[in-house]
Structure to design on (325 residues):
């Protein structure tokens, strides 16, 4: 089965997969916002709401998925609020007609507010607790966040896609290579721990009882601790300094933080930018991508990305953020 193929994942296939683990949907299947996997919410006969995730074929090995599940359970055992896979008959990963899937309880809540310093302070404590548990051991199967996958391979996927027009190719790839070269020079992952990996506002829920909960550890991997913090920064430099100070001070209530990692914020931002473009290019043969990212093939988008990369190149040359005195 191609890693891009969800063509045979029909509603009947999904319901049959649920039946195979004796979970019976009573409602229809509500598709949730996920492009990498296929994720659906439903009400079961036991009157509980569940979420089922079908993993993109060939992206992760069984061992890598199960390692993520064990990490999530480890966080649960340490009382770090996170949505963990359900265990059914001693298993968390199931297979049906070539697809692998996992079930989760459906957890409600409103989205985290990045500009709310009180919420940022609580998040800093929560990430500190998560990292304190994460440091206890290392992933053996999951990859480490690095330049090869996030920069070099991403560039190859872009080139192979032929989505950058001839008119935009020279200016775009020129500045892209400059950003890659500078990022490789600055990036250091000598101190890596297990991470959430994709810790942004969309993967944090603020529940009705005023607690934060992590969701979706699908991108969990080894990497520098700052990776789970920097995506919470927004606005101008002064705002980012205030946000960073709030996060780190709260984080240090539960875990030590290496302040030298602040110099990795802009390299990590550059890596995320390049990887995102490469990710869409790699998945372009999936009809969902061409349908939802149609702008990706337009010159206007590549003009914007060329400008964004130039701005990021300048940011890589700026002094790194430092905590307020």
């Amino acid at each position: 089965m191609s890693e891009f193929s969800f063509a045979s994942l029909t509603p009947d296939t999904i319901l049959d997969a649920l039946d195979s683990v004796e979970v019976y949907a009573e409602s229809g299947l509500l598709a949730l916002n996920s492009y990498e996997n296929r994720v659906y919410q439903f009400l079961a006969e036991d009157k509980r709401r569940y979420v089922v995730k079908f993993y993109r074929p060939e992206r992760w090995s069984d061992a890598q998925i199960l390692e993520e599940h064990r990490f999530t359970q480890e966080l649960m055992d340490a009382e770090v609020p996170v949505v963990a896979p359900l265990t059914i008959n001693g298993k968390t990963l199931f297979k049906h007609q070539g697809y692998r899937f996992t079930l989760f309880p459906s957890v409600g809540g409103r989205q985290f507010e990045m500009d709310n310093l009180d919420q940022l302070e609580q998040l800093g404590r929560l990430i500190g607790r998560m990292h304190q548990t994460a440091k206890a051991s290392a992933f053996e199967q999951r990859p480490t966040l690095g330049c090869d996958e996030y920069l070099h391979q991403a560039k190859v996927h872009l080139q192979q896609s032929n989505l950058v027009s001839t008119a935009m190719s020279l200016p775009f790839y020129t500045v892209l290579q400059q950003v890659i070269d500078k990022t490789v020079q600055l990036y250091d992952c000598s101190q890596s721990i297990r991470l959430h990996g994709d810790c942004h506002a969309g993967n944090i829920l603020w529940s009705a009882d005023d607690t934060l909960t992590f969701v979706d550890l699908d991108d969990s991997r080894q990497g520098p601790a700052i990776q789970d913090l920097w995506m919470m920064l927004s606005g101008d430099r002064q705002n980012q300094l205030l946000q960073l100070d709030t996060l780190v001070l709260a984080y240090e209530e539960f875990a030590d933080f290496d302040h030298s990692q602040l110099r990795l914020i802009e390299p990590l931002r550059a890596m995320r930018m390049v990887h995102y473009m490469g990710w869409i290019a790699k998945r372009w043969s999936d009809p969902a991508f061409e349908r939802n990212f149609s702008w990706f093939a337009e010159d206007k988008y590549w003009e914007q990305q060329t400008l964004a990369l130039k701005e990021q190149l300048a940011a890589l040359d700026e002094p790194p953020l430092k905590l307020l005195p």
In short: The mean pLDDT is 94.
